[in-house]
Amino acid sequence: MTKRPAGPPGGRGRKGSAGREDLSGPGAARAPGRPSGGTSSRSPGGPAARRQGRPARSGAVPPPRGSAKGAPRPPQGGTRTATRPAARPAPPRRPPRPRVPFRRRDPMKRLNVTLLAIAFVLSLFAGRLVQLQTIESGQYSEEARKQRLREITLPAVRGDITDAQGNALAMTVEARGVYADPSVIKPAKRQAIVDALAPMLGLEPAFVLRAVSEPKSQYEVLAHGVRPDQARLVMGLKFTGIGVEPEYRRVYPAGSLAAGVVGFVNAAGEGGAGLESSMDKLLAGRSGSQRVEISPDGQQIPMGEDQTKPSVPGRGVRLTLMRDIQYKAEQAIAKQVKATGARSGSVIVMDPRNGQLLALATAPGYDPNQYGRSNSATWGSPVVQEAYEPGSTGKVLTAAAVLEKGGVTPATPFLVRDHIVEGPRTFHDSHPHAPERLTFAGVLAKSSNVGTIMASKTITQDTLYRFLRDFGFGQKTGIGLPGETPGLLNAPSKWSGTDRYPIAFGQSVSVNAVQMASVYATIANGGVRVAPTLVAGTVSEDGAFTPAKAPASRRVVSAATARQISDMLEGVATVEGTAPKARIEGYRVAGKTGTAEIVNPSCGCYKGGGWTSSFAGFAPADDPQLVVQVVLQHPTKGSHLGGDIAAPVFKDVMTSALATRKVPPTGSKAPAVQIYARD
């Protein structure tokens, strides 16, 4: 039997049913219908086919490596000489993926892992909850409580101010404060709130809008002192975040009466002027407080925290002023200020026996109920705040000094010219006149500057200074009004060589009106100075009156000297004196006119500065009960002489005050005052 030649490397062939060799071995299989040939990796016998181990297609013999495409296949030995052209190999098929057998895992493991994860998360929540509820509970509870708490001020009832007879000049009435809680006001509601509240409460719309729009605030005050009926209208609007709270409002039932003394309480509830300012602490009392819990809609929680510290009411103040006398004084000075075109004016009424001030009237005035509508220049107390040169009304101090220490008597004669030269300066009387032989009483009655200078030469300048101090010059009166000036009185060491002469007739020194009134009260009281008094005492909440400390008193001049001066001053109100317009029918009147030049600030001189016109006196002269002083600053119409414009006001006010106090005429006759010296 003939042996078959060996097949190609990689496998031995076998015959198939069609008589073809069926080559087996790796890389021999081809896809059906695909032509053989080519050297690509997908050709029969290629590396890829061998790696995949697929059987070769039957009858296909791969060409030897390196043979050209389509080259004749070399003979393989044996008797076969002819070769069949190789068919084009088919691309190999992708082997099917091996099936991974499904293994059912234990479900308990997954369940345990899930439960463990859930348990871990819950433990975190539980730990945080324990932290909030136990460890940090106090801190968060306190923060929450603070957010709910609101401290409300409980204002104290301010004490009343009354006159000597208990008539109210300033009092406190119930009112309401309107506030907003911006944290609960919705932005869409803000404009509606502004449109409703601004005109109702008399507020600027911009202010209300700004208040209700505060992002981090829970309490913004919109208005103070709202009347209760008006507050009810506000609450009737039912705006969320708008509320009212109780407070008090200051009212002045007498209007402008004694406004310069009483003053006013400003919008912040503090004294803004007068006694309301200087006695604010006593009048205001001490405010209390209330801590309450507020719900998110701005309402108080009924059963929430409520801590209250009660307020302490202020004490009332009773003044020495008498309403009727004060009213008459204000009417008289206001009328004269208008008639003379004066810048301002004042009237003081005083009881010389105890120093009580019965009237402190100033013009122009203002209504403290509407102080914001008035000129702020009128808010003060000119009777103590405004200093002026007293002029001839100050001559009584020189008279007291020369009568006590200079050996001068009311009958001492002086040859008085209309001018006198002292050093480099020349001093004049108020009007030219021929030389006159006047007694010292006549010098005072005629208000001669020259005669006063001549009399002052009988004392030293130190003596003159001491008497001025003893009468209260250069010192505050201490009546309690704010901003008081002590006036100007330099020590003699600061006087120039000729200062003593104008000081003797009331120039080159300055005083306030109360200081000057006190000088005449001292003469009227027999030479004993009783410090002026405005506050009679205080009143507690239950109405108990506590009198003020008795005013200080001391003797300044002897009773005899005071009597001599009083008699000389009666000559002023005669037809031969400078103030016949001060006479009052049935009463003896003693007084003195004053017409002093005002320093012109533009030049520091008296030229063009204007005048201070005044009159100070007391009645009845033989038993003084009342002192009245009138001052007019810078009159511009008609006469500027004190005897012409101030004396009539004195007469008007004194007549009314004597009637109010029921002071009868004494019926005695005035002593004859010798004006001219006998030859």
TrEMBL record:
It is found in: Membrane. SUPFAM superfamilies: beta-lactamase/transpeptidase-like (SSF56601), Penicillin binding protein dimerisation domain (SSF56519). Gene3D superfamilies: 3.30.450.330, DD-peptidase/beta-lactamase superfamily, Penicillin-binding protein 2a (Domain 2). Residues 1-105, 295-314 are annotated as: Disordered. It comes from the Bacteria. The keyword Transmembrane helix applies. Residues 154-301 form the Penicillin-binding protein dimerisation domain. Residues 24-60 have a biased composition (Low complexity). The keyword Transmembrane applies. This is Penicillin-binding protein 2.
